[in-house]
Amino acid sequence: MGHVGEVVRTDSRVRRGRLRCGIGWLAETLSLPEFHPADSFFDLGGESMEAAKLARRIRTVLGVEMTMRMLLEPLRPRN
């Protein structure tokens, strides 16, 4: 059963790695040194064309569904 725990940890690492890539791309797109998940893409100067390109990049490279709406809203902790 320890094998299942290893899979969960690996999945968690993969998710964290994907999140770091996405956050790095957000900062790169906005020409900022960093981007915090609670920051608002548009409040920091992002435009809709940049958001569309970024969402497509995340979907294509990371295989994660990303919508414009997701970029509009800051991340919120899960309950």
Care to describe what's here?
This protein has a single domain (2-72), classed as Non-ribosomal Peptide Synthetase Peptidyl Carrier Protein, Chain A. It has 3 helices and no strands. It has helices spanning 2-29, 48-62, 68-72. Helix 1 (2-29) runs antiparallel to helix 2. 11% of the residues are buried.
| Spatial extent as radius of gyration | 14 Å
The assigned structural class equals: mainly alpha
Largest sheet: none
Write the CATH fold name: Non-ribosomal Peptide Synthetase Peptidyl Carrier Protein, Chain A
Uncertain residue ranges? 1-8
Beta-sheet strand percentage?
Answer: under 5%
Strand tally is 0
- The number of helices is 3
Q: Class, according to the CATH hierarchy? A: Mainly Alpha
Distance between the termini: 27 Å
Instruction: Name the CATH superfamily assignment.
Output: ACP-like
Helical amount: 55-70%
Give the SSE layout.
Elements: H1 2-29, H2 48-62, H3 68-72
Helix pairs in contact: 1-2
Could you give a quick summary of the protein structure above?
This protein has helices at 2-29, 48-62, 68-72.
